[in-house]
Amino acid sequence: MMRRRRTASPARPNRHGRHGRLDRSPVVRPPLPPLETRADKFDLAVGTAAEFLRSAWSELRDVRFEVAAMPPSTDEDGIPRWSALPDEKRIILYRFPIERLSHLHRDDDLHRRMMIESCVFRAAAEYLDRDPWDLGPERFRFF
Fold first, then answer.
1. Taking a C-beta distance cutoff of 8 angstroms, is the pair 91, 82 a contact?
2. Residues 101, 97: Cα–Cα separation, whole Å
3. What pTM does this model have?
4. How far apart are CA 36 and CA 61, in angstroms?
């Protein structure tokens, strides 16, 4: 009995990828703008922190928490992250200085949100003339 020698077949073009599906389009085509922008995420973080503080402190119930892009130009040293105005019952948080000048040790959504919330707490503490850690003692009792 003679055995046939197998010869290598010529390389066929790979028309199919993994599981037989190649060149499939992504679900969202053409690229769409993001559903949430950085400004939306910033506003959401400020709003939730402000609502927590309003529910915990009766002195803050009538205070307006506002978001502005940049502080007005001043000749002071440094760029303020917020302005606490007790006479007008307003706290203004400046988005660009908080986002751009904050040094995060890990650049992700969670740490960005924590930085924004800490600025809201520090601004409210300045408004009330208290320590920021006094504003939410129940929040940190498990640490």
1. yes
2. 5
3. 0.71
4. 28
Query: How far is it, in rounded angstroms, from Cα 140 to Cα 98?
Result: 23
CA distances from 62 to 53, 89, 100, 133 (A): 11, 7, 30, 21
- Contact between 124 and 60 (Cβ < 8 Å): yes
What CA–CA distance (Å, rounded) separates 51 from 82?
A: 17
* CA distance linking residue 133 with residue 122, whole number of Å: 9
- What does 42-67 look like in DSSP terms, one character per residue? HHHHHHHHHHHHHHH-GGGTTPEEEE
- Contact status, residue 139 vs residue 114, Cβ threshold 8 Å: no
- Which pLDDT tens digit goes with each residue over 44-99? 999 999 999 999 899 999 999 999 999 987 667 788 999 999 999 999 999 999 99
